[in-house]
Design goal:
InterPro entries: NusB-like_sf (IPR035926), NusB_fam (IPR011605), NusB_RsmB_TIM44 (IPR006027). This protein has 162 residues and is mainly α. Helix content is 64%, strand content 4%. It contains 8 helices and 2 strands; from the N terminus they run E-E-H-H-H-H-H-H-H-H. A two-stranded antiparallel sheet has the order 1-2. Helix 1 packs parallel to helix 3 and helix 6 packs antiparallel against helix 7.
């Protein structure tokens, strides 16, 4: 049995904990979150945001196809994604924190369009983004909203799990 790949947080220190190596897909979600956050705050052109992202360290480690699909898809379908989310949030999406809003957009986009990603994985990845970048209990909110949205967006997959 192979142990998961890990990278040292504090290289060379005995007994140091090791963080799991992030997959290219996870890195692409994190980069998309940062870009969408910028877009939500500034309304800047998404092409310019993507171009700026290309200059960032670690860009080559992204799943570039997934990153660009998330960035372009979330922006171009923002109104539709917000309409989906609006059925499951307790306030207007414009009143959400920009981090939670961006995480929910990514999760909803993956649930709607990335059928190669199981719905539980899409939700879990969004929860992990919220844990890493969001507020204290934001991940719980994201989990609940996307869990309810999955009923609308992945009814066949959910029915097959039951």
């Amino acid at each position: 049995m192979n142990a998961p790949k890990t990278a040292s947080k504090t290289a060379g220190q005995p007994g140091a904990k090791r963080a799991p190596v992030k997959s290219a897909r996870r890195r692409s979600r994190e980069a998309a979150l940062q870009g969408l956050y910028q877009w939500l705050l500034t309304g800047e052109d998404i092409g310019a945001i993507i171009a700026l992202g290309r200059e960032q360290e670690g860009y080559a480690k992204l799943d570039l196809k997934h990153y660009e699909a998330l960035m372009g898809g979330c922006v171009h379908e923002a109104a539709d994604l917000d309409a989906i989310l609006a059925r499951h949030v307790d306030r207007k999406t414009t009143e959400l924190s920009p981090i939670e809003h961006a995480v929910l957009m990514i999760g909803a986009y993956e649930l709607k369009h990335c059928l190669d990603v199981p719905y539980k994985v899409a939700i879990n990845e969004a929860v992990e983004l919220a844990k890493s970048f969001g507020g204290t209990d934001g991940h719980k909110y994201v989990n609940g909203v996307l869990d309810r949205a999955a009923v609308d967006l992945r009814p066949l997959e959910l029915a097959a799990k039951r």
